[in-house]
């Protein structure tokens, strides 16, 4: 896995619990302890009430495709092996919108409103990326 050449997240102190969660194959969302808002991406303060009293809760890991694009060509060499690939915005059941790849299916099958579930891709020893696949009953 050490030959992974694609960009990796820069783990910040306030996003570290999120990336520790994905490493355990858990999708965590920040939640404001004062107003209850669910927060993504991870921040130092609540975007609703500016409280710095933030905690974490585990998301169900399900959502629906809000929008997506299929990339067929014209990418940097390090992404070429992934072609064609799907990048989508996923609306989680918790009311969070998260961007990620939709995998484990024919890109032509992906549609707006399609139900998806999170899967975890251990891309390096340190980083696990959340991705999405069609919901399996
Ligand atoms: Zn708040």
Structure characterization notes:
Strands 6-5-4-7-8 form a five-stranded antiparallel sheet. A three-stranded antiparallel sheet has the order 2-1-3. The protein has helices at residues 16-23, 77-80; strands at residues 28-32, 38-39, 54-58, 62-71, 85-92, 97-102, 115-122, 128-134. 9% of the residues lie in helices and 37% in strands. 16% of the residues are buried. The chain has two helices and eight strands; from the N terminus they run H-E-E-E-E-H-E-E-E-E. The two termini are 31 Å apart. The radius of gyration is 16 Å and the shape is globular. Strand 5 (85-92) and strand 6 (97-102) form a beta hairpin. It is mainly β. The model has no long low-confidence stretch (mean pLDDT 96). Residues 32, 34-35, 37, 46, 48-49, 51 line the site of zinc ion.
Helices and strands, with pairings:
Elements: H1 16-23, E1 28-32, E2 38-39, E3 54-58, E4 62-71, H2 77-80, E5 85-92, E6 97-102, E7 115-122, E8 128-134
Antiparallel strand pairs: 1-2, 1-3, 4-5, 4-7, 5-6, 7-8
The protein binds zinc ion.
């Amino acid at each position: 896995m050490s030959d992974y050449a694609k960009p990796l997240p820069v783990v910040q102190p306030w996003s570290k619990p999120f990336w520790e969660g994905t490493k355990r194959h858990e999708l965590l969302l920040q939640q404001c302890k004062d107003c209850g808002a669910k927060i993504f991406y991870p921040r130092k303060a609540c975007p609703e009430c500016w409280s710095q009293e933030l905690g974490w809760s585990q998301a169900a890991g399900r959502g629906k495709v809000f929008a997506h694009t299929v990339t067929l060509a014209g990418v940097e060499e390090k992404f070429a092996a992934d072609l064609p690939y799907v990048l989508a915005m996923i609306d989680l059941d918790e009311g969070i919108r998260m961007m990620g790849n939709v995998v484990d299916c024919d890109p032509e099958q992906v549609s707006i409103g399609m139900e998806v579930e999170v899967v975890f891709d251990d891309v390096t020893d340190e980083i696990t990326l959340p991705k999405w696949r069609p919901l399996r009953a």
